[in-house]
Amino acid sequence: MAVKMRLQRHGSKKRPFYFIVIADARSPRDGKFIQKLGSYNPLTVPATIQIDRQKALDWLQKGAQPTDTVRRILSFKGVLFLKHLLRGVSLGLFDEAAAMEKFTKWSSEHEAHVAKRQGAHKKSRQDSRNVPVARKVEPVAEKVEEAPVAAPVEEAPTASEEAKTEE
Questions:
Q1: CA 110, 42, 30: angle at the middle one, nearest 5?
Q2: HSE of 163, CA atoms in CB hemisphere, 13 A
Q3: d(Cα 63, Cα 87) in Å, to the nearest integer?
Q4: Lowest mean pLDDT: which of 30-34, 88-92, 161-165?
Q5: Domain topology for 3-126
Q6: For the chain, which residues make up each domain, given as ranges?
Q7: Model-level pTM?
Q8: How many CB atoms lie within 10 A of CB 52?
Q9: pLDDT digits over 77-89, tens only?
């Protein structure tokens, strides 16, 4: 049985909210699942991701295949990096303490980077709200422009008028 780590859509129309679940590959997107790992809300800035790292790591080591979006989420949260480090431990490249030290160093740097991006977003949003609108209001002009008066156009005399003038 092929097991997938994928998103299960919830929320109303045009307001998505996702659960990150373990499901059989043959089951429908919003159907039956084996286990719920966390949630993902793409509407917040930055997107809100809550995931149980240990459960996700266990399922990855058992052979569950993440979809593309879930793979990016797991990478962002450090689950794939932790799996990579534990693979190095199993191959004997370094011990588990060194792997956990590397992961905690990466995690602290990553959290600082995310906080910096979130702060920059809040600052830019605040700046866009506080920008004074420079509108130049011109007073309504009271004088009315006068249209030039056209000289009366002399019309050519008609045939009946010419006949009267000849008499």
A1: 120
A2: 3
A3: 14
A4: 161-165
A5: S16 Ribosomal Protein; Chain: A; (3.30.1320)
A6: 3-126
A7: 0.72
A8: 15
A9: 999 999 999 999 9
CA distances from 3 to 59, 63, 74, 139, 167 (A): 9, 8, 16, 71, 116
Question: What DSSP string runs through the chain?
Answer: --EEEEEEEESSTT--EEEEEEEETTS-TTS--SEEEEEEETTSSSPEEEE-HHHHHHHHHHTPEEPHHHHHHHHHHTHHHHHHHHHHHHTTSS-HHHHHHHHHHHHHHHHHHHHHHHHHHHHHHHHHHHPPP---PPPPP---PPPPPPPPPPPPPPHHHHHHHH-
Contact indicator for 69, 43 with CB cutoff of 8 Å: no
